[in-house]
Amino acid sequence: MAATSYGVNHPLAVKLWSRKLFHEMIGQSYVGKFIGTSDTSLIQMKTETKKGPGDKITFGLRNLLQGDGVEGDDGLEGNEEALVTYNDAVTINQLRHAVRSAGRMSEQRVPFSVREEARDGLQDWWIERIETSMANQLTGNTGETRTKYTGMQATIAPTRMLIGSVAGENALEASLSATTTNAIKLKDLDNAVAIAKVRNAAGNPRIRPVVVGGKKMYVCFLHPFQILQLRKDASTAGNFYDLNKAMLQGGKISDNPIVSGASFIYNNVIVHEWDYLPTVPDALAPGGDGTSYRRGVFCGAQAAVCAYGQDNKPNKMSWDEELFDYGNQLGVAAGCIMGFKKTVFNSVDFGTIVLSGYAPEPS
């Protein structure tokens, strides 16, 4: 009986496996639901490097006009205002990983396809790497210096930060205490919303909300240990339990992928639990030990950008198979030319406010 078989590096097999790997990697990663091409997406995909050569995309922001204008018949000539623009850039680079079988005899002993297990293993690896990279970028985790774990470019320390229950923006993380006094509370979300809506005296821009089901919403990511502290707060007025009945209100927005999986919605902030969020870098933490403190992040539109290279079009992932040891061992490699970056204009975080708080591992 004739059987259809696709050998090593068969063109159809390459397309099949690379396409399946990418779609499942993005579909199963937590951050995949927040990626879109519009300027109202939380993570905006930049497409310029898919269309031509280059390893960097530079994108701009036009500042709001600040002039007074003129009244009546007062002369406008000579009172014009110059446009002020700022720019940022995301760099792309190739990241690859591979697995290799021990040999045909080892494959004979197991009831599964090494090729399929290789794809599943690489898929899990890529999901972990995407989640880790985006979490490090959004929170400005300068404690991680390996660009393979930060979206293929260095992280930038946060310029907008709220410390759990400490008044004011940009308090130092060294002021945190190892008590629930400095745990994230609902009032910190209120403060983040208020800050996001106003252009302050220092020139920090407003943070635009994302649009979910026609409603303007912000998105906040908190670590499970931060959520635990939030849930344990039973003493603060207007605490988590007092407002439990108001969670996930808003009708059809609950069907939106951005909302699905959310822990709760509060003050038009969709709060997601995200276990990839990092600890506070030791160099910035009290006593030089950040293990008891976590960074969450409050996000608006265009909080970050991502980009992919043209060689990965249309499947984005590369897929290569190779035989070793006279055909006895199969090796499978998957790669991607990509980049992730938090947006920063004029040295100020454009769409993020970091929320640092006491969040120790439960004992």
Tell me about this structure.
This protein is α+β, with helices and mostly antiparallel strands and 363 residues long. It folds into 2 domains: 11-62 and 86-142 and 304-344, 2-Layer Sandwich (Major capsid protein gp5 fold), CATH 3.30.2400; 158-301 and 347-358, no CATH class. It contains 6 helices and 17 strands. The chain has helices at 11-28, 48-51, 104-108, 114-139, 186-197, 224-232, and strands at residues 35-36, 43-46, 56-62, 85-91, 93-100, 161-163, 210-212, 215-222, 264-266, 269-273, 293-299, 304-308, 317-324, 329-342, 344-345, 348-349, 352-358. Strands 6, 7, 8, 9, 10, 11 and 17 form a 7-stranded mixed beta sheet that branches. Strands 1, 2, 5, 12, 13 and 14 form a 6-stranded mixed beta sheet that branches. It has a two-stranded antiparallel sheet with strand order 3-4. Helix 1 (11-28) packs across helix 4. The termini are far apart.
Sheet bearing the most strands, described? 7 strands, mixed
Report the structural category.
alpha+beta
Helix/strand order, N-terminal first: HEEHEEEHHEHEEHEEEEEEEEE
Low-confidence stretches: 1-6, 248-252
The Cα radius of gyration reads 24 Å
Estimate what percentage of residues fall within beta strands.
25-35%
- Strand segment tally: 17
| Number of helices, where a helix is a run of at least 4 consecutive DSSP H or I residues | 6
Estimate nothing, just give the exact number of structural domains.
2
Form type: globular
N→C terminal distance? 61 Å
Q: What proportion of the residues is helical, as a percent range? A: 10-25%
Average pLDDT level = 83
